[in-house]
Amino acid sequence: MSVEQPLWRALIAYRLLTLCYVLALYAHAYGRLRHPLGAGAYMAVLTVWTVGTVGRLRGAERCTKGFLAADLTVALTGVLLTAVVDTPARIQAGAFTLPSIWTAGSVLAFAIKGGWRWAALAASLVAAADLAERRAFTRDTVHNVILVWVSGVAIGYVVEVARASERTLARALRIEAATRERERLARDIHDGVLQVLAMVKRRGDRAGGEAAELGRLAGQQEAALRALISGERAAAEDAPAGPRDLRGLLAPLASTTVTVSAPATPVPLDPVAAAEVAAAVGAALDNVRRHAGPRAHAWILVEDEDGTVLVTVRDDGPGIPDGRLAAAEREGRLGVAQSIRGRLRDLGGTATLISVPGEGTEVELRLPRHPPPPDPDAPPARTAAAAGDAPRIGGTGELTEANQGSTA
C-alpha cells in the first residue's frame, strides 16, 4: 500500500469534519451577519463542493492540478467574501472567515499532492487573502497565517520524505528478489549442468587423445558458467498445490549404497519446501559420491518432530579436510553454499555439517513447519567464506561446521 493513501483518507475526513464546524459557526452567527443570506449561499456552495469532490481526494491520480486550483479558489473566495457579508466590527474583533479552518484543507491537498513547495505557494495565497480581508496585521491574523503556512510546509516535507523512502524500499525489494533468483539459478546449474561438465572434463583428461580436447573445452565452459551464474536471473517455478509427503521424494534415492529410513506415517510438507529439502539431500549425496568414492555408504534418516522436520545424511567416507569448505566457496563451487545451505535458508531452516577426518561426514537439515517471518532489521548472516576461521556459524539458514572443509 502506498504511504500516501492514509494521508488522502485523513484529508477527506478533515474536510468533512471542518465543513460541519463551519456550518455550526454560520448558524451561531447568523443573526449578527450583515448579509446572512449571502453567507448562506456561500455555505451551500461550500457544502456541495466538499461532498461532491470526495472522490477527487481518493488518490494523487484523481487530484489534478486543475482541481487543486479550483479548490483553492473556493477557499480564497470565501475568505474575501467575509468582508462583504460580515460587519466591520466583528471582523476587527477577530471573527472567523466564512470557510474558517476548512481553508487549511486546501493547503494540505497541495502538500500531499506536490510536496512542501506547492504547500508554501498555497499557504502564501491564503495568507494574502486573510490580510486583505482583515486589512490589518492583528495578532490573531498573523498567528493563523503562520500556523497554516508551517503546517502545510511540514506535511509537504513529510510526504516527500515518505515518497523517497517508498522508492528506496521498492529498489531494495527488487534487489533482494534478483539476488534470490540468482541463488536459485546457481543451485539448479550446480545440481545439473556444472556437474556434467566437471565429469566430462575428468573423464576426458583420463582418456587422452580427442577426449582430452573435449574435456578441456568442457572445463572452459564449466569455468565460464561458474562466473556467469552470479549475474543471471531465473524464472520462478510454479509449485504444485497441496502438501507433499517428503518420504515419497526421498525414497527414490535409496540404492545399494544409500539407505533411507523414514517414519511409518506421512511427513507432509509444503510442495516447494518438500522439493527443496529433497534437492538439498540429493546435493549432499552427490558430494558423498564425488568425494567419498563410489563404495562409500550413506544413510538418510527422516524424523518428524513436534513442529520440525529433521533430515540427516551421514556417510562413512574419509571426512572433509580442514579449510576445504571456505576454499571451495572462494573458488565459486557452490554445492554446500547454495545447493544445501541456500535452500534451507530460503525456507527458514538450518543446515548443520559435522565432519571429522577419517570418520565420515554428517549433514543435518532442520526445517520448521511454520518458519518465523524474516526480520528486516536483522544484519546479514556471516558465511563460512566470510568468516574464514570461525569454527561454528549459527542462525537461521546458516551452515554450521564442526570441521571446516567442503565439497563442491
From TrEMBL:
Residues 370-379 have a biased composition (Pro residues). The lineage of its organism: Bacteria, Bacillati, Actinomycetota, Actinomycetes, Kitasatosporales. Residues 280-369 form the Histidine kinase/HSP90-like ATPase domain. Residues 358-408 are annotated as: Disordered. InterPro entries: DUF5931, HATPase_C_sf, HATPase_dom, Sensor_HK_TwoCompSys, Sig_transdc_His_kin_sub3_dim/P. CDD domains: HATPase_UhpB-NarQ-NarX-like. It comes from Actinacidiphila acididurans. Keywords: Kinase, Membrane, Transferase, Transmembrane, Transmembrane helix, Two-component regulatory system. The keyword Cell inner membrane does not apply. Residues 1-170 form the DUF5931 domain. NCBIfam families: HK_morpho_MacS. Residues 380-392 have a biased composition (Low complexity). Residues 181-220 form the Signal transduction histidine kinase subgroup 3 dimerisation and phosphoacceptor domain. This is Sensor histidine kinase. The chain crosses the membrane at residues 12-31, 37-55, 67-85, 91-112, 141-159. The keyword Transmembrane helix applies. GO terms for molecular function: kinase activity.
